[in-house]
Amino acid sequence: MASLKEVKNRIASVGGTQKITQARQMVSSAQLHHAQSVLENAIMYKESLDRLASGLLSLCMDYETPYTTKNTSGPIAMVLMASNSGMCGSFNANMIKELQSLPALYPDDKLIFFPIGKKIREAIEHAGLNIGTDPGTNLDALAGRTSYEEIAETASLFMELYRSRKVKRVEMLYYHYQSTAIQEIKETTLLPYSFSQDLVAKSTEEKDDFILEPSKEDLLDTLIPMLLKTNLYTTIMDSQTSEHAARTMAMQLATENADEILGGLQLTYNKLRQQNITSELLDIIGSSFA
Question: How many domains does the chain have?
Answer without folding.
Answer: 1
